[in-house]
Amino acid sequence: MVLLSTQNAWPFLLSAFLIPQLLCVARADVHFYDFVLKETNVTKLCRTKSIMTVNDSFPGPTIEVHKGDTVYVNVHNHGDYGVTLHWHGVKQPRNPWSDGPEFITQCVIGPGTNFTYEVIFSDEEGTLWWHAHSDWTRATVHGAIVISPEPGKLYPFSKPNDDKIIMIAAWYTEDLKELVDEAMIDGSDLPHSDGYTINGELGDFCNCSQETTHHWYVDYGKTYLLRIINAVMNAELFFAIADHNLTVVGMDGGYIKPIVTTYIMISPGQTMDVLLTANQSLGRYYIATRQYSSEDADVTGFDHNVGSAILQYRGNYSLSLSPVFPNATLPLYLDYGAALRFTNQLRSLASEDQPVDVPQDVSTRMFITVSMSEILCPNSSCTSVSGNKLGSSMNNISWVNPSLDVLSAYYRNLSGTYTTDFPDWPPSMYNFTGDDLPDSVDMTYQGTKVKVLNYNETVEIVFQGTNVLKGSMNHPMHMHGHSFYIVGIGYGNFDNETDPETYNLVDPPHVNTFGVPKNGWLAIRFTANNPGVWFWHCHLDRHMSWGMDMAFIVKDGGTAETSIRPPPAYMPPCMDMGSSDISMQISSIDQVEVQQL
Ligand SMILES: [Cu+2]
Fold this sequence. Notes:
Helix content is 10%, strand content 36%. It has 7 helices and 32 strands. The structure holds copper (II) ion.
């Protein structure tokens, strides 16, 4: 059943769709994967529970490509509930149909059905990842994507001797789907994790975990390319390896100017490529990660567990000593300064071979507050905040999932699914980062509001963090379909006269996920050159569930090459809960017509 990366499979498909592409991109290869979603029993922290997996593995299988390749992933859902998959950071030019976020570009792949994603790589190179994009299933349904340089091309650094994937995830002892479903109904807090796994294992500092700690064996003198992925649901992370320097050379599928450091801070959704030279005494060294909490120091309910693995040198030496822990280099939970010092060093490589294309002129400007908020509850019947419900918002709008995906509604020109009035500004201007904010700024309104962009518009967004409900913290914002340049970052309220003077328009990092700093602002720029419907959201799933989401529609550019590709022959049908099974049988196009009635 499990078929990995076979280039000669499905020749009939090749002749139908791919020959034109192969003619355009001479060296692009095509790969085929089968992903079988199913429940698997796993024992951690002394308890066995069933989790959704792909191909029985946690983390799931790695997709390996060269830059510019195309991958077909046939997802067979043998699980009990519907799931979608997303190819995080893959731009998918003109192909939003395979992007994956539920209610944005598709509806779920139902149990007993399958759907084939066509994942089109373009300028990405380095490390990305894939994950489920429906409910919180991504906790266990995720895997790495390794993108090597085109055949015959070199890395912008000496070729490493080998590479190593480090996938960091959050483990929950209880049934996560049940917990989340309950909390979303009664408005209570969403669950916190019970530990952090490295390549599927919690490591020596967690109960019942010492026997299975992940070991990475290295040879003295060799240099390795670590591909570090933060797949955690709700936490930014510090990460260090005892006694070893890390040289960060890539981020989010692009190269950066090398940063030599003893630790990194990585947000959920981000990926980092890091060189490590095994140049220390033969021995064992902990690879360790712990949460970076940007919330107020009195918010202590987060997961304090340290996830660990062991870097172990090959050779003859005594294993009687305990592995060395990065006590001096792994920052503590609340070390805001350490997070900042690392983040501030990020710069694009901006070389001749890896040029940047930062929009110098801006045609569309948005100023978006990212906030914790209150959602009005009928008769003050909720218990979270003064009779109301806790929410998250952008410009005081909390996203509500539609029942038909936005992409289908847009493509078919159907009304009633979304509106195009996502505001360019918050409803009022106030001291966003102040300590005692008036209650009047707390309230958010629920809606499915998108922002429409013309093809090739150059967009600047300033995200302004707020201290509403004393809930200021970092929000790692993620964009689908595009990477964006981080042209400015600062603390306090954005000043539209002086702050733009500090912008970096020369070598800003080019990323798909980046944190709006606690009580600060983040300025980004991108060119809307990918027609489609593209989700924008906080990659803390707690905030995504509470509504810190919106979508861009990038319109077609007037030619076939600048327009959305036609939909595939089959898209999973959308159906309301309780619809008859018959509706499962009909195609998505028919389903759209059913929804119209
Ligand atoms: Cu957030």
